[in-house]
Amino acid sequence: MRKSSLAFVGVLLGATALAHPASADVKIGLLGGVSGPIAAMAPAMIDAAQLAIQQVNEQGGLLAGENLVGVVGDSGCNPQNATDAATKAVNIEGISAMVGPHCSGAVLAAANSVTIPAGITMITPSGTSPEISKLADKDTVFRTVPSDDYQGRALARTLLERGTGKVAVAYLNNDYGKGLAEAFKAEFEEKGGEIAGFAAHEDGKASYRSNLAELADGGADTLVLFDYGDGTGLTILRQALENGFFETFIGGDGMKSDAPIRELGAENLGTFYASSPVGEQSAGLEAFNAAFKAIGGDPNAIFVTTSYDATFLAALALEKAGGDKAKVHEALREVSNGEGEAILPGEWKKAKELIAAGTAIDYKGAAGDHNFDANGDVPGTYALWRVEGDTFAVETEMK
Amino acid sequence: MLDLINFYLVPGIVLGSIYALGAVGITLVFAILRYAHLAHGDLATLGAFLALAVVSAIGLPVYAALPVAMIVTAGVAVGVDRLFYDYLRERPKIVTVMASLGVALMIRSLVQVIWGVDAESYTRGISRPENWWGIRLKDREIATVAVMIGLVLALQLFLLRTKWGKAMRAMSDNPDLALLSGIDNRKVVTLTWIIVGGLCAASGYFLGLNTELKSLMGWQMLLPMFAAAILGGVGRIEGAVIGGLVVGIAEELSVLVLPSEYKAAMAFAILLVMLLVRPTGLLRGKVL
Fold it and tell me: Which residues belong to any copy of the Receptor ligand binding region domain (chain A) (predicted)?
């Protein structure tokens, strides 16, 4: 008995010893909100990330031909699940870089408690909270989506330019609403605008008329509403219109949803505007669109371009760093800083050869150029949209 | 002054009426079956969406959808009782309470599978209120309060005057004694669920009519409804109505003195204070 169990242990030991040299895979973590409130968006985002990995493997793989493997984890769009999933990815799977998580709260938790201490580079494709810029991250947290700080400030400047000097602000009491509202307020007041009401609200109440009455008390006739058009934002917009609170309504990207048009009717939304990021037409975007359509994806789905870029950038940085986890964040800045030979989405072979030859490269992605600033953020382009017919049309560019 | 009535008191009363309809159901389950029914909110959601199905599929007018939704939801409530709660009747009550949480999740998932997770509404567009000597009221708000009062009066009359109403009260008082006096407990339980299901559907329907229909709408109402039932005194129909109105109006008025993000905490605060100061509720409830 003792002999046989010894032999069994021996076999196990041998198997693990063998397993190591055989696994010439380099893993990157793909953490996403597979379950939870953004479950509808996550599959397309992960497909886009897998597309980048597939292209890398088809065009020679990483370093000396190693396979790049995406390890999918569920961050559940909440801090607890994100920490668990990140811990598993870093400590058990041994990932070399992480793409995700998708939600701001999840990003903050996973970065603070797992990836920053471990020195693993994290690139989120969709965490937009300004809080992410403030992380003491030793330069290891990046994002391919612009911070809401830019959006809030751009919206403030645009409103002032259009002659709106006095507004009331209502925002949803979460990371998204609060970040956007505070960025907006800071810029609006700094540029001479007056905030005549500034209040958070909780999700899911039946009546917001008292909130609206309180906000309208300040005397503003424009309401800036940072919320989701499919949720509380719709209720507030409806009750404001029905009761004649405010004349003009301005929303953030969360309000640019079909729900207000579908439920309230375009004829009632003549004074409703919403800001949202706009993709700039570029060769990079076209290359991605063609490749993503070819695998059956919808290139217009939200955050697929940023997910693809985050993954492709992670692969480029890993190649540049020679597979050294600790150097990925430095390499990431080198492969996308606006200097060097342009690399478009899908051009892995070209990039690999240039890196091997020691030539500087500059990734020009599907969602933008991704020249990261000191906080690891990228600037965004936004437009203000109005309701026209049964859809949104660009009212003006936002600067 | 008019502003106070229009934007704080009127929404508070409408909201309170919706809470009241739910709280009466909760109080009935408490009094007769003696457990907290956590699937109450999601049953209300189901009722609201059933009314939507009637409006959009059959094309009935919005108000005509209410009785249909009430009848179907009553049927669902009886079915849920037969399938899940009946089997647990002799076990400790906490088992049934937990089972009702499971039922809540099942009903919610069912609603999400059938109708999706997007916000819906009974009628497209917006309806502006009419001006009644300075007080701004919408038809649907008048209907909400009127139907609530009508349903509660009818229920009170039923409980006080009819044979089956008396049977329900008897069972609420002492189930064993009621059984010995020849009252069929099973029939009383079924009757209770028919009434509770109908009231649930009504509260969900009016919430949907006054705002939008969302798959989480009922769940988010559960706490204020429980607060209302306990505030009024568990087992007291008129107490649940008063409790609902107090919670609804307090939530709306709280914005005057508290930052608006704490509005949702109002029901919690009322519940807490009531349990500390007067756990029997305003009307000293226990039995019907």
Answer: 48-389
